[in-house]
Design brief:
Elements lengths: L1 E5 L6 H12 L2 E4 H10 L3 H12 L5 H12 L8 E4 L5 H14 L5 E6 L2 H9 L1 E4 L5 E3 L12 E2 L6 H15 L1 H8 L3 E5 L4 H16 L1
Parallel strand pairs: 1-3, 1-4, 2-3, 4-8
Antiparallel strand pairs: 5-6, 5-7
Helix pairs in contact: 1-9, 2-3, 4-5, 6-7
Length: 211
């Protein structure tokens, strides 16, 4: 099963991706995670990406497309994958379609998780992540409820950067919803509900679509 997860930053893509990966045993490809790891390791890619990420801007298409093409060559993606945070522009979506067609693979569904922007600002500015296991929690978690690890705030979850990320989403990424609607792959999900309810809807829709 090959899935694209669409949605504004903070819509809950990461949380749902983790659950889908556990349920269907498919590879999780998060361009944000790959870029953050590169920034942390101060690789040439990380150094280039950091200035864009700190401002809440998109990293250039050529860089991100190259990353995803490389990742899709890896063996674990053959059993299926979930793309989380990619594509984010029409250029990326077109490049993905052409790469998958070369690899003889298809996207089965593009799941768009929809959440009101006001809710998103609140969610992102109070979001905290576990340093050790990556658990996505909130300000209310003094330590990680999964592994007791230390929680931290992403640099780009500061209010000003969050607003810019949402503006970038509206301008560059929201049009992808129509792109995938046009190819009959779009599944729209109300993301302003408890995590497990959203997951149940996604699972039911996928099982129905894929038989
Ligand atoms: P995310 O964790 O998906 O919210 O991504 C964090 C940041 O990484 C974004 O604000 C962008 O700066 C960068 N990024 C992640 N994925 C992409 C992408 N597909 N295209 C361009 N920039 C990206």
């Amino acid at each position: 099963m090959n899935i694209v997860l669409l949605g504004a930053p903070g819509a809950g893509k990461g949380t749902q991706a983790a659950k889908l990966v556990a349920e269907y045993d498919i590879a999780h490809i998060s361009t944000g995670d790959i870029l953050r790891a590169a920034v942390k390791a101060s690789t040439p890619l990380g150094l280039e990406a950091k200035s864009y990420m700190d401002k809440g801007e998109l990293v250039p298409d050529s860089v991100v497309i190259g990353l995803v093409k490389e990742r899709l060559q890896e063996k674990d993606t053959e059993k299926g994958f979930i793309l989380d945070g990619f594509p984010r522009t029409t250029t990326q979506a077109v490049a993905l379609a052409s790469e998958l067609s070369e690899l003889g693979r298809d996207i089965d569904a593009a799941i768009a998780v929809q959440v009101d922007p006001e809710v998103i600002v609140k969610r992102l500015t109070s979001r905290r992540l576990c340093q050790s296991c990556g658990y996505i929690g909130s300000q209310a978690d003094a330590s990680c409820p999964q592994c007791s690890g230390e929680m931290y705030q992403r640099d780009d979850d500061q209010p000003q950067t969050v607003r810019n990320r949402l503006a970038v989403y509206e301008q560059s990424t929201a049009p992808l919803i129509d792109y995938y609607r046009g190819s009959d792959l779009l599944v729209e999900i109300d993301g302003d509900r408890p995590v497990d309810n959203i997951f149940a809807t996604i699972k039911a829709t996928l099982n129905q679509r894929l038989g």
